TrEMBL record:
Residues 8-148 form the Potassium channel inwardly rectifying transmembrane domain. SUPFAM superfamilies: E set domains, Voltage-gated potassium channels. This is G protein-activated inward rectifier potassium channel 1. Residues 155-320 form the Inward rectifier potassium channel C-terminal domain. It comes from Mionectes macconnelli. GO terms for molecular function: G-protein activated inward rectifier potassium channel activity. The record marks D134 as: Role in the control of polyamine-mediated channel gating and in the blocking by intracellular magnesium.
Length: 321
């Protein structure tokens, strides 16, 4: 059995790659900060290390060049001679002076003298350049570390969706849960049905997106996610599953993309978690097992039963039939 290609993986990663950008790839450089934030951690760390290493070596070389052109390297041990930077004898000593200046360590052994205007100009340039590089790279690393992507790891979706009756209506249902005690403020859930179709004009749409109503009109899509919730899509005449039956489900090809968005209570940043269900992950005539129980003064959630389902009597016919 070969697994069908998914548009969105179960972990929320979108299987879309952009190619043949041509001249449009220059847009990534025009937004360099976002480009660096979007890179993987290994590339971020490599760029971080290379930028500082190259900048340090270049600036140390400039300090060494000033000392070399002034002849300070040959007369550094002469007590009567006033060099540009005291106690700079070679490139390692120039590099150490640059590090002391850049990191504001100030050991006091190496320092700029007042008879070196070019050294004072280079010192000002180094201070400005160092501030810009620090602000850019450290800001990039801070934003990347504070991204709420990892918060989505503690938001759970059931492995399968089910179709069964609820309140006398045939419904498509799946379960969501929050593993943390911190809440998702203004949590909202949306569903997209991705299915290929052909228009009456003959146009073929390979990944047509259709909205699945999960309570937009009634406000049921606004979640108070303190315990696992079962999200319900009523299959009616306006639903794209109006003609879906237990038999036709076996021959259908579709994907249901679920998007859960909310604000992380602890950081105030927006977080998005995604998953998807293909037709072979939709169980006809099943219902989720209860996971809530009342203990001594509190409600207990048993996450070992979070994905569990059981069969219930369900008509095998579509709503249209």
């Amino acid at each position: 059995h070969r697994e069908r290609q998914r548009f969105v993986d179960k972990n929320g990663r979108c299987n879309v790659q952009h190619g043949n950008l041509g001249g449009e790839s220059s847009r990534y450089l025009s937004d360099l900060f976002t480009t660096l934030v979007d890179l993987k951690w290994r590339w971020n760390l490599l760029i971080f290390l290379l930028t500082y290493t190259v900048a340090w070596l270049v600036m140390a070389s400039m300090w060494w060049g000033i000392a070399y052109l002034r002849g300070d390297l040959h007369q550094a041990h002469d007590d009567t001679y006033s060099p540009c930077v005291a106690n700079v004898y070679n490139f390692p000593s120039a590099f150490l002076f640059f590090i002391e200046t850049e990191a504001t360590i100030g050991y006091g052994h190496r320092y700029i003298t007042e008879r070196c205007p070019e050294g004072i100009v280079l010192f000002l340039f180094q201070s400005l350049l160092g501030s810009v590089v620090d602000a850019f790279l450290i800001g990039c690393m801070f934003i990347k570390m504070s991204q709420p992507k990892k918060r989505a790891e503690t938001l759970m979706f059931s492995r399968a969706a089910v179709i069964s009756q609820r309140d006398g209506r045939l419904c498509l249902m799946f379960r969501v849960g929050n593993l943390r005690n911190s809440h998702m403020v203004s949590a909202q859930i949306r569903c997209k049905l991705i299915k290929s179709r052909q228009t009456p004009e003959g146009e073929f749409l390979p990944l047509d997106q259709c909205e699945l109503d999960v309570g937009f009109g009634t406000g049921a899509d606004q979640l108070f996610l303190v315990s696992p919730l079962t999200i319900c899509h009523e299959i009616n005449s306006e639903s794209p599953f109006f003609c879906l039956s237990q038999r036709s489900l076996r021959s259908e090809q579709f994907e249901i993309v679920v998007i859960l968005e909310g604000i992380v209570e602890t950081t105030g940043m927006t977080c998005q978690a995604r998953t998807s269900y293909t037709e072979d992950e939709v169980l006809w005539g099943h219902r989720f097992l209860p996971v809530m129980s009342l203990e001594n003064g509190f409600f207990r959630v048993d996450y070992s039963q979070f994905h569990a389902t059981f069969e219930v009597p369900t008509p095998p016919y579509s709503v249209k039939e």
